[in-house]
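User: Some background: our group keeps a shared notebook of sequences we're curious about, and every so often someone picks one and asks for a predicted structure to add to the entry. Today it's my turn. The entry only has the sequence so far, pasted here. Could you supply the structure so I can complete it?
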Amino acid sequence: MYKMPRIWLDYCEFLCMQCQITKTRHVFNRALQALPISQHHRIWPLYLKFVSSKGIPETAVRIYRRYLKFCSEDTEDFY
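Assistant: Of course. Here's the predicted structure to add to the notebook entry:
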């Protein structure tokens, strides 16, 4: 079950609608740790959208930097 990206996405989407920012961020992190790297591209768009919408710039910068380590070809889009 932990290797199924659809379940993680559904759970993350549900948590995004809640007001528990830290818990949601922890679940995104768990999803990225549990899934193989070949599935990370399915999680990152929702994670970036979530963190951008919450108005927490320090956290957003850390998460975007982490994303750019995973997907360095998008570096030009953020600089």
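Suggested note for the entry: The mean pLDDT is 91. The radius of gyration is 12 Å.
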